[in-house]
Amino acid sequence: MPALQTVRFSLNSRHPPCISLRMSVRTLIWLALLAALAVWGYWSMIRMPGDSYEGPFQPLTAEEAALRDELERHVRVLAGDIGERNVFRKGTLDQSADYIESEFAAAGYTVERQGYEVREQTCYNLIADLRGRIRPDEIIVVGAHYDSVMGSPGANDNGTGIAGVLALARRLADQPADRTIRFIAFVNEEPPFFQTGRMGSVVYARMAKERGDTIVAMMSLETIGYYSDEPGSQRYPPLISLLYPSTGNFIGIIGNVRSRELVRSATRTFRETTDFPSEGAALPSAVPGVGWSDHWAFWRQGWPAIMFTDTAPFRYPHYHRATDRPEQIHYESFARVVMGIERVIVAMAQADD
What we know:
With 353 residues, the chain is α/β, with parallel strands linked by helices. It has 2 domains: 2-41; 57-348, 3-Layer(aba) Sandwich (Aminopeptidase), CATH 3.40.630.10. The protein contains 9 helices and 8 strands. The protein has an 8-stranded mixed beta sheet with strand order 1-2-4-3-5-8-6-7, with helices on both faces. Helix 7 links the parallel strand 6 and strand 7 (278-282).
């Protein structure tokens, strides 16, 4: 009798056993798919090869100390002697371009100026090629923008990026590479040109696509000079803070999901060769900060591109301010990071066979 009553109750319920079972199975399948997607996302976009460096730093070697001094010299010229540089201060923007061209030339490069009109003025991207020996048509772009936002001398944003490009160009000038390494100083990354057709990297990437260039990787150096060991010194967009450290002592290696293999390769090489904390991420481009530099222009043309960054507004208290001056930069850490980026470039520039 109890069994019969149970059957009657089930038959009279809103969801007969077979329907409830199908719903439960369907729910379990969806949960399993979501769990599998989360695991895939973590291992392909968040979890990077190798481990971020932890522990004390060794004193700078003589080579690293010389690099530190070189980087500081570039930053002090750009953000100290020249200062704010953009189309609203065209004299200093031109002065910056002349300085960058002279430094490329001093390292032995022939410099190409790619000019285009903005507000009835000619602005220039500056391009210097280290031609590859075996696969010269396969190009690795290493770039940074040299303009600063209005009202700021732009020591970190982006004097450090340009200083890094200039130092890397000089250091690699005599090293044989299988692929071509193209060093570019971009103009007009800052507002009001950011992510518009007047942004220097957009102009360059569009021209390169029309010309039929084969760009196998692009690396943007964007605000790479500020580090802190203070707990809580690192911030993130919503939810990202659950996945990454709260101390801003690392270099970030960032790309979109389509560039995840490039992110992983660069992070692996950096961690295997360089004793400096690093965090890699291949995230959707809609996440705030992921596309905030010149690599974004290369994504639009379908090329893999990444950004090396200290995360800028998520860490640097002087971001886009008049106080973004040369004395704010941590030059020893900056030099260690540039040495690591050099090793990444050298590895990428070697042919696979």
